[in-house]
Amino acid sequence: xxxxxxxxxxxxxIPLLIHATPDTYFGQDLNTLPPVGPGSDNPTxxxxxxxxxxxxxRFLSRLxxxxxxxxxxxxxxxxxxxxxxxxDTATLIGTxxxxxxxxxxxxxxxxxxxxxxxxxxxxxxxxxxIDFSTPQAAFGFYATDVEVAQLRIxxxxxxxxxxxxxxxxxxxxxxxxxxxFFGVIDTQAPFITVEFARVGPSIDGFGFDNMTIGRLxxxxxxxxSLGIGLYAGxxxxxxPGATYRIEYxxxxxxxxxxxxxxxxxxxxxYFFVDRDSVTNxxxxxxxxxTIE
Length: 292
Known about the structure:
Blueprint (H helix, E strand, L loop, with lengths): L22 E7 L20 H11 L6 E3 L12 E4 L2 E6 L3 E4 L15 E5 L6 E10 L1 E7 L5 E7 L5 E5 L12 E7 L5 E9 L6 E9 L17 E5 L6 E7 L8 E7 L5 E5 L10 E7 L1
């Protein structure tokens, strides 16, 4: 008696909780305007910042009914203890100071809207944080004069999960008085704290303005995008039920044919699509080989 031995392979699937990378929005406009008066750290204010505004627009297009803090209601040279974003409140921990700068810049920093902004002064601790009263899924802001040091933003959830994001400016690469926008949307891990940290040995000052937050229910999904794929379609004529190997070469004549796939012809002619053809390669030549 002939016995068939069947081996059963058991696969145990263990679900993994994977935190996808948050969506980030970044745009920067470098200030190449001449300084006002003597010294290189008193640049003319950059009034047009299309790259930063474009990033801000893309970020805000994902949100609905959110509030933006412009720091206009605080006293000049005060250190806010709390910030109000519509129905949400936030506690500010650290020593950033509100500055009133109606014209030009303060050592390269300046407001984006109105006359006031939040300043992380040079020669002060390089860290401050904002604690929110409710979990947030979106946070965005403008920054000015992120010049020599870099800026790191950390999102912290209620259970301590931490996501560190370095604003992608080039270290030691920005002229004084430049403008950037940075926004982050994380719908998988809403956060209750945003930490700001100056990165590197420099103690340069930064300016912050137009901070916007958004709860999970205020975030729209990322709009779908479409791509056009150009694929080679082949009519394979042969004997139904026979096996054929489809091969390709990048030029003719050729002795270097590459096997693409084997197909058992279900009917003749049979339409076959090479999905890795013209999109990734400028040109391919094909042939079908009968496999005995």
